[in-house]
Amino acid sequence: MSIESNKNLAGIGSLLIAIGSFTGVLTIVGAILLMIGLKGLADYYKDNSIYQDALYAIIFLIIGGIVGIALLGLLFATGFAFIFEFAIFAALGTVAAVVILFVFYLLAAIYIKKSLNTLAQKTGEGMFNTAGTLFLVGAILTIVLVGLILVFVAWLLATVAFFSMKTYQQPMGQQPAYQPPAPPPPPP
Q: 3-state secondary structure string, 81-132?
């Protein structure tokens, strides 16, 4: 696939993730498109950390989500069976589940930021740096719920950055496929 196709896939993926914040299913489709686009961009720029860091972020989100939801499910199942005896246990367990979710969400934001910062260096598109910083600040501020708005804005900025990327640039350290011959020297 061309760099144009990869940047469009990543841009559409990040837009679907932003919209999917409200629906859910679109988030999964968006994440898949984003990862396909990032893999293509990583191959184009010959820097696999663009893809690897984003993959680590998704892995952290999945693990955190599974552990947090499993813990909450266990607590609610036991809490409903013993409503009065285990109220304190359920409350502490709920706090532990939220902390686990927060830690894994923060780790994911760190890796998304690393991926976007690398992409900013390779493409020259500074909006990737801004989006990465907003992801990290938004993840930290999810404790007070304001961070969710920042993460939504970060996804929108990442979308704009993908579509604003210049595609005529050569990857760093790579020569064009065709170089015109040098002009002949002037006659004596």
A: HCCCCCHHHHHHHHHHHHHHHHHHHHHHHHHHHHHHHHHHHHHCCCHHHHHH
